[in-house]
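[agent] plan:
  1. take the single chain provided in the ticket
  2. run structure prediction with default settings
  3. attach structure tokens to the ticket
  4. add a short note for the reviewer (M.T.)
[agent] executing step 1
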Amino acid sequence: MAKQISDPGFGVKLGGTGRIVKQDGTLNVGRTGDRFHWSDFYHMLLVWSWAKYLSFIVALYVVVNAIFGTAYLLIGTDQILNATDGDWWMELSDAMFFSAQTLTTVGYGNLAPGSPLVSAIASLEALAGLLIFGIFTGISYGRFSRIKPRITFAENAVLSPHRDGLNAFMCRLVNERSSLVMDSTANLILVMQDPNEPQHNRKYYQLTLDIPHISSLALNWTLVHTITADSPLSGLRQQDLVDRNAEFLVILTAFDDTVGQQFYARFSYRPKEIIEGARYVTMFETTPAGDVVLHVNRIHEVTPAVLNALAQERAPINEPPSYL
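[agent] step 2 finished; step 3 output follows
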């Protein structure tokens, strides 16, 4: 008899038919009522897109420069050495350019403070420039140094014939980068809801994998759960999985040896994303010279396969796609 596991953190008393993990790996959880804290700002700068991050830096640069430039303009550009006498536009230009040169500590030598007050403000602006650029240099390095794994999961899981006359639930993944991924551990969790319960509480089952851990993800990795009599999938039909809002959660923990960081990847499969009676096409081959070639573009390819007799009486989980 299959045993349940405790809630891994996705919630138990939740209804609805939405998936827990989106296919981009993010959790399907919306948030509201959050209170902003100043420490959250650093996290936002790390996770923003590059376009949004660079736009913010440019906007901050313009705002800070405008504040100090306005201060110089109000004091009077006549207190800035070598400033051009003229209309307000020329004075504004000199004030802004002097502010930009001070903020970035460039100091070309043409425009310079001409009074103690301007020198004091310029000193504060130079300090602000050092802090701002120092902070954003560190944040930019943090953004570059954060690893963003390119683990690709097959778009469909398969129900395939396996050893000892049994069948198995399989899904596979591959590292699309040439980086060396080490110490990889995978978890496969089946989530189902009982349609007979009023609250439709979620129930979680840890699916046993034939190989839950590998030392090196040099090739693709196919996760295999053999469907024995003790498996939560034993005797279930497609409609059973649909009625129970089933979802297969795949969670990968690994270590990228290139950057020396641990990373995580997530994916999920719904019943209609499982192909019954199929197996994955081999992704690698050996050349005559003895070298191994991995065809990453074959990650989604499957081929028909006859299931073992123990499961042939089951209704198909999903019809094979037309390209088979």
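[agent] step 4 note for reviewer: The first strand starts at residue 80 and ends at 81.
[agent] ticket updated
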